[in-house]
Amino acid sequence: MLLTISTTHSPATDLGYLLHKNPARVQAFELSFGKAHVFYPQATEERCTVALLLDVDPVALVRGRGSMSTDYVNDRPYVASSFLSVAIARVFGSALGGRCRDRPELVAKPLPLVAGIAALPCRSADEVRELFEPLGYEVDLEPGDDASGSYRNVTLSGRKPLAEVLTHLYVLIPVLDGRKHYWVGDAEVDKLIARGEGWLEDHPRRDLIVRRYLKHRDNLANDALARLAEDAGAGSRDDNDRPGREAFVALADVRLAAVARALKESNATRVVDLGCGEGRLIERLLPD
């Protein structure tokens, strides 16, 4: 499972600051389903490429509790899926969240970026284009538009802030795959609304994105669509009338997000939540 991101921004090695990953080092990160490796195949001032290589244990996927497949030979360890989204959040979490301590001026700056996704499941080439082109990407596919098959190597090119590109990948890769590896509950609605801020409410395939992201759970999808419609309606009002986004976020959700963020930044591997009530914090942490 492989994701690459390249830039020709000058100097291109600024990509390392944004990702909080030194281009001179090879790093490995333990995940609940395998190991993520981060390295830079190319790191010059003219062009810099980072690679996120995800090594998923195929036997553990079958033997593990709640496994999705009983077949030892399947595509799950190799195709771009929700495993890759979880790795993006865990390994590139600061960049995904738009945080950069050393070069904060780069966070919101549009950069010339090229993202390469290997073996992305898709029902058709048109579906990939319908999801990414409205967001301003130039989409290249291998095999091409007229080829048959359920997997394609996808290249996305555009001039965007890195956090925006990572966010689009985080949301849309599982949408195209359609087989999230973890249980989906209310926390996933909050996550989708947060990650979709500023683009999802106006996306022409909004309904498809929401329903697939939430694994076609109608109650969750309807809730998410209603909240997105509220946001879209608020966005059309005059700024003086428009209620802040805080109006749609419960204080409990803000607290949960803050606790989850602190735990991720501490690299904690075990969490005990005493007096957890309905277990919403644990539910939020499960995908990671």
CATH homologous superfamily name of the domain at 1-182?
Hen1, N-terminal domain
- Residue-averaged pLDDT, rounded? 86
Q: Topology as H/E string?
A: EHEEEHHHEHEEHHHHHH
Shape call: globular
Please report the distance between the alpha carbons of the first and last residues: 17 Å
Which CATH architecture of the domain at 1-182 is right?
2-Layer Sandwich
Counted beta strands: 7
Described by strand count, sense and barrel closure, the largest sheet is: 7 strands, antiparallel
Radius of gyration: 19 Å
Helix content: 25-40%
Assembly classification: single chain
SS-derived structural category = alpha+beta
What is the structure about, briefly put?
The protein is of the alpha+beta class. The chain is 37% helix and 19% strand.
Task: Describe what you observe in this structure.
This protein has 288 residues and is of the alpha+beta class. The chain has a domain at 1-182: Hen1, N-terminal domain (c-terminal autoproteolytic domain of nucleoporin nup98), CATH 3.30.1610. It is 37% helix and 19% strand. It has 11 helices and 7 strands. Strand 2 (27-31) and strand 3 form a beta hairpin. Helix 3 runs antiparallel to helix 6, helix 6 (162-177) packs across helix 8 and helix 8 packs antiparallel against helix 9. Mean pLDDT is 86; it is low at 238-250.
